[in-house]
Amino acid sequence: MPKFNSLKVWPDISGYIPAIIPFVINDSRGKDVNIHFNNCAIVDSTGINLLLLNILNKIVNTKNVTGWTCKSKLENENIEFIKKIGFFKLLTKLGKSPDFFWRDMEEIVDIPIETIGIFGEKRISFPIYLLQFKKNENRRNALLPFKTRLYGLLEEFGDIYNFSFAHFIAILTEIAKNSADHTDTPCLFGLDIFKSYSGQFLRITFSIGDLGIGINENTKDHLPLNERARYNYWDLTQTYRKALQTGFTSKPNSFENRGIGMSIIINGAKNIGIKLLVFDAKSSGLISDINVDKLSHNEIRKSFYFLDRKVGFYYYGELNLERKNA
Amino acid sequence: MHEYSIKSDFGIIDLDDIDKVERILEKIIVSDVNVGLDLFSVIIGYPGTSMIVDRVLFQLENFSGKKSLILKTDFYQNEEELLNAVFWGSSYFKIEVYNVFELNELKRIISDRLQKANIAFRIEVYNQKNNLVNAYELLQR
Hints:
The complex is a heterodimer of chains A (326) and B (141).
Chain A: E1 5-8, E2 12-13, E3 32-36, E4 42-43, H1 45-60, E5 67-71, H2 77-84, H3 87-94, E6 113-116, E7 122-131, H4 139-160, H5 165-182, E8 187-195, E9 201-210, H6 214-221, H7 225-228, H8 236-243, H9 261-272, E10 275-280, E11 283-286, H10 297-301, E12 304-306, E13 313-322
Parallel strand pairs in A: 1-3, 2-4, 3-5
Antiparallel strand pairs in A: 6-7, 7-8, 8-9, 9-13, 10-11, 10-13, 11-12
Chain B: E1 2-5, H1 18-25, E2 34-38, H2 48-60, E3 67-73, H3 79-87, H4 103-117, E4 119-126, E5 132-139
Parallel strand pairs in B: 1-2, 2-3, 3-4
Antiparallel strand pairs in B: 4-5
Helix pairs in contact in B: 1-2
């Protein structure tokens, strides 16, 4: 039996795949976690952000773990990308700190990384953005720099592509507000922009998540007294049905959330063409497919998929755009 | 009609930025009975959006006869969410920030007030291709 926990990262750390990598930390295997990147072959900001959230969930929520180390083949160029995107910097800041050189990653400059694919397509990957809300802080103000940054990144594409970028940012902000309202844990955001060689098409992917308990548990915790008796019999479909009802809020005194946030996210995503997935409890749901005006159990259930293990709480989204007609 | 572009004329991109919204309010001087508010490429926020709408409506009340306001946005949201986002925190309509109204109740509150002031109010929603996809007449001419 090895004396450490080994987290072997899958070859593909892009899109939503890292959200479902089954890392298991076993307390009996000691206090250190070794993260192996040896086979890492495909990376992007969206995926690395989900990998980071997935790993942080395990490290932060496991009492016995006191540190982590990483292993990789030195020639693996993707490790450089993972460094620049801020993975090690944030793992050091938010996870249990290692006792060696990963601290140097704090110095990484926070600029987009541009790469060219084998078919000439361009990818712009943005370093993972950390949203950390302090207690008693005006959370609206905490979100302003996040929105300003996104605006600066995306505005140029609004002129060229059929892209309501301000609405896109409003939806991301609503997701972040939900996070701020329901948990004090940090919220992390990753974003990639893929531009076809001809420039005709643009694809945006993003991931956003926190280390909180998610909508499913939050909804259960804030049910009215007369519904709590049924708590144990509710599955995730039922809790989402509740969470999506206008006027239901698990944070009644919040300024940012008045029980309509989830509808704004889902309908907004649908209207501007975002394919939006949520990972919560032991399921994943394509929530942009849900008809919020027809909140039946069946309607919600057909959008959710059982993953058989707890996966944390994350959103993954993608948006495909075409150049405006000249 | 006098149309104000919140982004081009006032440099506002985020209506959640209350400090900036407060600073430009005084610059919105209504001099025509027909006013347009262009919120394209602006992040809709509350109560920043309603503060701007309130400013225009209060000034329109100073004119006699029929008045109108057209608000244009690419915040391509469903009616209930859009109206809540636009009117939350409005002092003109006395809509408290903590209240979520049923759609019909919200529309009734808005139309009653507009009726008294004789102000027609239309919200036009455009999609990412700049096509008009919805128009909501809160009080028709």
